[in-house]
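SAMPLE LOG
Freezer: B-3
Tube label: C17
Construct: single chain, 182 aa
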Amino acid sequence: MARANTNEAVAIAPTTPATPMSTWTSGMPPGQNTLDSAIERVQPMLQKDYADWFSTFALQQPSGPNDKTEYALLVYRIPHPALDEAVRKALPDIKVVFVDAKISAKQHDALMNSVSFGYWKDRGLQINSLSCDFNGVCTFGVDDPDKWRAALEAEYGKAKVIVEKQGPATPGDAVNPAPTPK
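STRUCTURE (predicted):
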């Protein structure tokens, strides 16, 4: 659960369709284009004028026609009143929920880039996956987490590292394989 700047808790977990029949016939919720356009309107400003505070966006939208979830643009940022005001002014017609983050997108990119795959490979560790969230925590996917956890925690900080078992990707591991033509 994340905190909105209004001091009320905001659930940000995506909802799942109640039944297989609750998906959109178009494949996309009807309000998604409006939210995508809203991002296009404010993203350049946030990246230019508020890069030290802006983290990322997420969309809150219904998972299907029977889901009553309200459409909203979630703006993850390090709290900054001027950023919030600029977004509200630019998007008066869009419901915006501000969600606190611990790091900006700029800091996130620096964090991801601080992990040297070559350094670890030279020491015998193959990092098979790496992801970092906007709270500054990185998840490393490795073959033997118990063997490497202490070394990764010592390098990056125990509170900032999660080490999970993850084998290397193989050609058949496509996350979203292309549909087979009929």
